[in-house]
Each structure stands twice: as C-alpha cells, then as structure tokens.
Amino acid sequence: MKASSIFWLIACLCLAPILSACSSGPAATPTVPPPTRTPFPTFAYIQPTTEGAFEVEESPGEAAPAASIDLDEKLVGRGRGRYEALECGSCHGENGEGTSQGKSLLQFAMQEEDFITFVRSGGELGTSHQYSTDRLSNSGSRNLYQYLLSLAQGN
After folding, report:
1. Which structural domain range is residue 91 located in?
2. Residue 90 zone, left/alpha/beta (φ > 0; ψ -120 to 50; rest)
3. What does the pLDDT read at residue 1?
4. In whole angstroms, how far apart are CA 66 and each of 4, 50, 52, 76?
5. pLDDT of 58
6. Rounded to an integer, what distance in angstroms lies between the CA atom of residue 84 and that of residue 70?
7. Is 65 domain-assigned?
8. How many other CB atoms sit within 10 Å of the CB of residue 75?
9. How deeply is 132 buried, as exposed, middle or buried, from its count of CB atoms within 10 A (0-12, 13-18, 19+)?
10. Is residue 43 assigned to a domain?
C-alpha cells in the first residue's frame, strides 16, 4: 500500500501544474492599436478654359531666336534623354525639325512655367501631350525644356 500511495502522490504533484496551466481564467490579450486610415493622394484634371500656351509659327524662313537663357549642358543632355524616352521625335522629328505629324520645335519660345503647365495639362492638344509626374517628373520637365531651348538656339 505504501507504493501505491507514493504513486498517487507523485501523480497528483505532476498533474497539479498541468491542470493549473489549463485554467479557464482570462487570457492576456496583446494591446495592438487599431489600424489607421492612410490617405491616398489624388489627381484632379482641370480642363483649361483658355487657349493653350504652346504656339509655334510655321515659317519657311529662318527660325526666330529663342529667349536668351543660359543653357546647362548637363540638363540639355538629360532633356534629350527625356525627348527620346517619350518618343517626341516620332512626331516632331529626331532633331525637332517637325514632320507631317507634328510641328517644328526649332522656333520654340515659351517660358519654363508655361511649358511645365502645358505638359501637365496637354493644352489644346489634349492627352497626347499630357504627361503626369510618373512619366515626366518636374526635373524631367525642366530638362526637356532646356533641350527644346537648345534646339531653338541651334545647339
């Protein structure tokens, strides 16, 4: 009998921690803050109500000189890259000389801010000349502007 009572004593001592671990008390819940709403930026297209600022006169004579602006060769090189990447040459010619599909850019005379507004809105030409910032960044627009000025200045 002594052996059986020792067995039951050991069994109870072993089962006591197991049974206490399985108690039905409230479990500790981790405190995780609820997810917050993240606002997504939106783009609203506003149709221009005035005529486009991009006007180039067709003339068989010599091109009018572009505005006297100091060109940065580094920006001009980057602008040529944008001109090629956006395939501007397919309509305006490889060197901006114009084709049957697009006007010559050799008489390009536009202020930088007007040009950037034009590439964002498309002007009266519509979506074929509208570039959002994911296709043409603000710095890319400035570089393209420098390149078009270099074409107009004959560089």
Report:
1. 73-152
2. alpha
3. 59
4. 109, 24, 19, 15
5. 53
6. 23
7. no
8. 18
9. exposed
10. no
Overall domain count for the chain: 1
Evaluate if residue 62 carries a pLDDT over 60.
Answer: no
> Which has more pLDDT, 96 or 55?
96
For residue 66, being part of any structural domain is answered with no
Q: pLDDT class for 63, splitting at 50, 70, 90?
A: very low
Measured from the Cβ of residue 143, the count of other Cβ atoms closer than 10 Å reads 23
Residue predicted with more confidence, 128 or 118 = 118
In a domain, 1, yes or no: no
Residue 32 Cα distances to 29, 35, 53, angstroms: 9, 9, 54
Kindly give, in sequence order, each residue whose CB lies less than 8 Å from that of residue 130, ignoring residues fewer than 6 positions away: 119, 120, 121, 122
Q: Would you state the pLDDT for residue 21? A: 66
The CATH number of whichever domain residue 102 belongs to comes to 1.10.760.10
Query: What are the φ/ψ torsions at residue 25 (nearest 5 degrees)?
Result: -70, 165
